[in-house]
Fold this sequence. Notes:
The chain contains 13 helices and 13 strands. It is of the alpha/beta class and 379 residues long.
Amino acid sequence: MKVVIAPDSFKESLSAAEVAAAIGRGWARVFPQAELLLLPMADGGEGTVDALLASLGGERRELQARGPLGEPITAHWGLLTDGSAAIEVASASGLHLIDPARRDVCRASSRGSGEVLLAALDAGATRIILGLGGSATNDGGAGLLQALGARLLDVQGRELEPGGAALVGLARIDLSQLDRRLSEVEILVAADVDNPLCGPRGASAIFGPQKGASPYDVDLLDAALGHFASCAAQALGKDWQHEAGVGAAGGLGFALKAFLGASFCPGIQLVARIAGLAEALVGADLLITGEGRLDSQTLHGKTPVGVAAIAKQAGVPVIALAGSLGEGYQALYQAGIDAAFSLAPGPISLQLAMASAAGELEARACDLARLWRVATGAN
């Protein structure tokens, strides 16, 4: 018997690797001879670095970088065994790094993410995998570009201040000192949105309010990013602002695609491809996936549905385990998941459910294995 275990993390409770390990322990209690392949997954957001390190092996690295408002923070990234670097933008530029009372989307800068990318280049990375989820910034990736050597200058030839609002004063983009190593590496971006840079579906209008932008801020930032795009078009010879996905992460997708030539892919598809999920499913009898909550929103780019689609192509049935099953979870049965189960053993507080998640995962996996044995006659 071959079982592939490919879950996402249970946020604020267990990493994807811990979830996979708990499920594996439970299944092995019933089928100790089973071949269990543990492939922790992520959708390009929080946990992507740790999931890829757990699946492929490598080294988790840390560095001092600038946070979204310029404060020193400790960021992390992963150097994988194949020479790739895995980076989460949120590690240095995440909304979680700023207390809600201090959030200032007009000043927030992606420079720290550029510093992490620079560290990956210094380590000799040949490919860079970037997850864009959870950013606090709306600067079009200007800060990231500055960290990599680009100069964004006003009419007097001075460097712009950090943040998206400052881009209204941009007069010229100098790329002469942009790190030359960038042309020698492949940059893959895990992003699940197709928004353009500006306009009613742009970065500022759609994602700005989540980061604390007022209606006035949204209009200011949208105009600033439009001006940035116009200056970029002069420097690059092409206008990139209407390309699908460049509005991701406060326009960080714009800098990555227009200036760095990055390729974009839906997060779970990219992570699954790099981790080798399709190859792992060859000859498998079952795939077990899961995440903290399964509901109708899981249909939109989340890990369980993404891995289920790949499993269905291989003809492998899929069972999902979740901390809780929310409204509309039955829609998942039309998206490749054959059965879904909640961990909760009965009425329980969220705090206790999170604390006991590993034990409940192991117990529920054991229950499922017993049911599988009855249903299939497997030994």
